[in-house]
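Narrative of accomplishments. A recurring question from our advisory board has been how the design workflow behaves on a single, concrete structure rather than in aggregate. To address it, we present the structure tokens for one chain from the evaluation set, followed by the sequence designed for it. No filtering or post-editing was applied between the two.
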């Protein structure tokens, strides 16, 4: 089992590196984080602000965790779909 062959591995590494890039201050305006984070896309919508809370009230640590989790789960879904296609 070579772990580097799976999408879940590469998407996890990519999302962690983007979060670290942001934490270390290289993405000071959060542009890269906004462009690559599905949770960030959701919390920046008007619907979310009206129905829940303003994005500035959500801690960045929660956004980091959700970003890594979403990309890992997307990788697992892709891996499973490809495995299913390969077995047919």
């Amino acid at each position: 089992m070579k772990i580097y062959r799976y999408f879940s591995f590469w998407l996890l590494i990519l999302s962690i590196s983007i979060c670290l890039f942001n934490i270390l201050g290289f993405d000071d305006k959060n542009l890269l984080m906004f462009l690559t984070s599905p949770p960030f896309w959701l919390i920046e919508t008007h619907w979310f602000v009206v129905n829940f809370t303003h994005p500035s009230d959500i801690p960045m640590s929660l956004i980091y965790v959700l970003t890594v989790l979403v990309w890992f789960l997307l990788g697992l879904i892709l891996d499973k779909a490809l495995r299913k296609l390969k077995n047919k």
